[in-house]
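Cross-check.
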Amino acid sequence: MNGSVAKWARLVAEAELSEPLPRRWTHSQGVAWRGSELAALVGDEADLLLAAAVLHDVGYAPRLAITGFHPLDGARFLRDSHAADKRLVRLVANHSFALLEAEERGLRAVLEAEFPLLDDQRLVDALVYCDMTTTPDGQLTTVEARLAEITGRYGANSLVGRFIRRAEPDIRAAVGRVEAALAAQPK
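Predicted model, tokenized:
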């Protein structure tokens, strides 16, 4: 991938999110900005990470919300309407441990069949880190504060609240791996 994929992704995300969901668009921009901080960590995959970061929530766009499960709706849109790179589509489909939420929704088998997990742990972790350390308003935050914000917004007993509770150990582990890798980088 080259730098043009991230630029294309930004245009697509902006077109789908900026007017109907300006706060979601702001979050997506913040997640992409966070991704730019990880460029050295992911090396040649920086463009892919930036594209996935800005597109990770595109499935929330009202016109794309077919199933109501944004990772699946976004991935299908990218695959079917844009013939997007398969790795990009799989990152969007599975961002932030979406399989666990898919299970809560009865969609795990569908998500796994259409969009298998990407086996590049470094990229998967990087996208989790970017999403889970960015507020809904695009600001930097801690993983602890982000998890609390999600639980507070949706409610602890909601479907999303149950998903976050189940995913929390994996989310914290992914963020921890990225933080450790960042700390180990030469200054």
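The chain has a mean pLDDT of 96. The chain is about 70% helix and 0% strand. Passed to J.P. for a second look.
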